[in-house]
Amino acid sequence: MKLYHVSEEPDIEIFEPRPSPQVYDQITGYVVFAVSDEMLHNYLLPRDCPRVTYFAKADSLQSDINNFIGCSKNKYIINIEESWLERVKHAVLYLYELPIEAFTLLDKGVGYYVSYKAVKPRKVLKVVDLLNELEKRDVELRVLSTIKELAIEVSKSTLQFSIIRMRNAQ
After folding, report:
1. I want to staple 60 with a disulfide (CB 3.0 to 4.6 A). Which of 9, 19, 56, 135 is the partner?
2. How many whole angstroms separate alpha carbon 156 and alpha carbon 164?
3. Phi and psi for 133 in degrees, rounded to 5?
4. Torsions phi, psi of 32, nearest 5?
5. Residues 6+ positions from 38 with CB-CB distance below 8 Å
């Protein structure tokens, strides 16, 4: 397993703990966030891009799978708004691989890990074609006029979901 921090900045030498933007009871101070390689696809978009992501779990209801995933051949679905598509096409991201031993699991469902100490990246990978990278990771990218209603609906489903940066949604 590998852990990553995704950024649009190309030259980060050390990640210092910061206040958590999420409300997790388990977090008791400033942290460095990392995401597992398995869930990295959720972050292969510009940082501020609102998105609704999901996939079927073993206990997901067939009706939810039919309703939200349909006959997609991909395991993962990411929905963005059409106003973001051009930015996604032209964005460049940097994947900072972080040392696993510095982190503890926060949320397995979305692949979040945290460290309470500063972390130096092991290496950095540059990604210039986000659409291709998503495709390689078994993701179907869906482009909608708005994702607000979808976010509400999927949050009531039995799918594993992540709703990110909705404050930037139309």
Report:
1. 56
2. 16
3. -65, -40
4. -105, 125
5. 1, 111
Q: 56 CB contacts (<8 Å, ≥6 apart)?
A: 64, 65, 69, 75, 159, 160
Q: Give the residue from 38, 34, 36 showing the smallest Cα distance to 18.
A: 34
Query: What is the DSSP pairing of strand 3-7 with strand 93-98?
Result: antiparallel
Q: Report the first-to-last Cα separation within the chain, whole angstroms.
A: 36
**Do strands 160-164 and 112-115 pair parallel, antiparallel, or not at all (unpaired)?**
unpaired
Mean of all residue pLDDT scores within the chain? 95
Place of tokens 């979305």: 110
pLDDT of 128 > 90? The answer is yes
Q: Using alpha carbons only, what angle is made at residue 85 by residues 37 and 75, rounded to the nearest 5 degrees?
A: 40
Place of tokens 């964005």: 91
Query: What DSSP line would sit under the chain, residue for residue?
Result: --EEEEES-S----BPPB--SS--TT--S-BEEEEEGGGGGGGSS-TT--EEEEE--TT--HHHIIIIITT-SSSEEEEEEGGGHHHHHH--EEEEEE-GGG-EEEETTTTEEEESS-B--SEEEEE--HHHHHHHTTEEEEEES--HHHHHHHHTSSSEEEEE-GGG--
